[in-house]
Design a protein that fits this description.
The protein is an alpha/beta fold. It folds into 2 domains: about 150 residues, Rossmann fold (3-Layer(aba) Sandwich); about 60 residues, Orthogonal Bundle (Arc Repressor Mutant, subunit A), CATH 1.10.10.10. The chain is about 40% helix and about 10% strand. Strands 2-1-3-4-5-6 form a 6-stranded parallel beta sheet, with helices on both faces. Helix 6 links the parallel strand 5 and strand 6. The two termini are about 30 Å apart.
């Protein structure tokens, strides 16, 4: 297996931990996108423990890239900082509103998103070593791994459509309804309908909360693919 985690101390610590198991062979470790791609293509590991905070180009999906480099490698996404501390979806600064919002806005991790992007397993960084070992062994057998900590929360049951994602991003940039209508070549009334639908789906009260939500959770609104933990 190969370990790809940002930070030399974290990476070496994980390698040392995994190396205590006689049936787990660590082939190498990396800290960058290029190193990970090269190592996987060269060594063809059965399992890659991938820190989901590893720096990847925004236009490159880590799991898809790994699959191209080494089709047999199964990716175990690891949240190095544990539950509720994903830098992508949960910045350190608290959101300025605290009522009627979906659980994922303040408590989601990168793990559900990693699974939705093709990871074969996901593990909370706060998990105990025995759980990590079990996950690696399970995935090495060709099975998937997904404990309770990687299950998507149920509060956000509806996916935003591609158009709603675009509207959300524009609101996050401070655009008015008229500016959004012009940008997307739709009517002001259609924009209002989209905004109302977005607020209802995300459990938000107004445009200000939506704008803050987009600013705090940019990755959740990336691209034009529908997102929502309840979607298939």
């Amino acid at each position: 297996m190969v370990v790809s985690i940002n930070g030399r101390i974290n990476r070496e610590g994980l390698v040392a931990l995994l190396s205590t198991q006689a049936d787990i062979r660590v082939l190498g470790s990396t800290g960058t996108c290029a190193e990970t791609m090269t190592l996987c293509a060269t060594l063809l590991p059965h399992v890659l423990v991938l820190g989901v905070l590893t720096a990847w180009p925004r236009d490159l999906s880590p799991v898809s890239a790994i699959r191209l480099a080494s089709p047999r490698t199964r990716v175990l996404a690891l949240a190095p900082h544990g539950r509720d501390r994903c830098a992508y979806l949960n910045p350190d600064a608290p959101t300025p509103f605290d009522g009627g919002r979906p659980y994922w806005i303040t408590h989601s991790t990168c793990l559900p998103r990693a699974l939705s992007r093709g990871a074969h397993g996901a593990l909370d960084g706060d998990s105990d070593p025995a759980t990590l070992f079990d996950a690696v062994r399970t995935m090495a057998r060709g099975e998937r791994w997904g404990g309770a900590d990687s299950e998507p929360p149920n509060e956000n049951r509806h996916a935003l459509s591609p158009r709603e994602l675009k509207v959300s991003r524009l609101i996050g940039q401070g655009a008015s309804n008229k500016e959004i209508a012009t940008s997307l070549t739709i009517s002001d009334l259609t924009v209002k309908k989209h905004v109302g639908s977005i607020l209802q789906k995300l459990g938000l009260h107004d445009r200000l909360q939506l704008g803050v939500c987009v600013a705090r959770n940019p990755v959740a609104f990336d691209g034009d693919e529908p997102f929502g933990w309840g979607s298939s």
